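thread: overnight batch results

M.L. [08:02]
morning all. the overnight job finished for the chain we discussed friday. pasting input first so we're all looking at the same thing
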Amino acid sequence: MVGSGRTTPMVAVMMGGPSAEREVSLSSGRECAAALRDAGYRVVEIDAGPDLCAQLQDISPDVVFNALHGRWGEDGCVQGLLEWLRIPYTHSGVLSSALAMDKERTKSAYRAAGLPVVASLLAPRETVRKRHVMTPPYVVKPNNEGSSVGVYLVQEAANGPPQLSDEMPETVMVEAYVPGRELTTSVMGDRALTVTDILTDGWYDYDAKYKPGGSRHVVPADVPKDIFDACLAHALRAHDVLGCRGLSRTDFRWDETRGPDGLVLLETNTQPGMTPTSLSPEQAQAAGISFPDLVRWMVEDASCDR
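M.L. [08:03]
and the structure it wrote out:
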């Protein structure tokens, strides 16, 4: 067991933080803290702020369970701090966290590995406001956010370009829209767990992801075996190519009218949500792994050396 020789290891659950995904992170963190207590650990909850380094030095935990989402928490920044402090932490390391958070660089890594992706480009926010930089339908989103924060769907019949919020970054990703089904696969270490088919009444946006009843999950997905197996293989390959460790989740779109050619990877999340409506804990449960067992495994897998 990870620890410094104490009978019962102390785990600091790091949550909250300053990103646009703060509320989701708080929900994830509270769920994980409760499960870790059930699993027998001593747990301290930390709302990550400017004094994070001092808090960690005062607490001196055996392990940090990183339940942060979004910028600073899953883009390599806090991972670098934990490496400096030599505190083992859950999920991916500095390089893979930074790489996976940058959607365009993630796609470059996918392409180099022969994984299927959809056409995309980076463009200035002001340019995207003034004209279509890609033939509709297309999607506009920040290049380095998650949880569908700041996502605009531009329909084929759109009268003009999207009027992006001033809160959008100066450079955004514009991505060809892929019709069809939303599929996702979690990887736990060297094992792809299963495939989920995500059903919604509309776009799989922030509310659909996190509000009760916002979406319905079919686990395991009722899709042809070749598609199911391809999702498992692609997710595991993406996990390895990006250098992930611990738990990751890769999202897909599948245009079933095109068969296997209609399956594309969208992105890999190095710190999947751990809320009551989150996909990865649900997939683990479907694979026979309880939530306390999942978080226990994540703590045992924690490291600051790989």
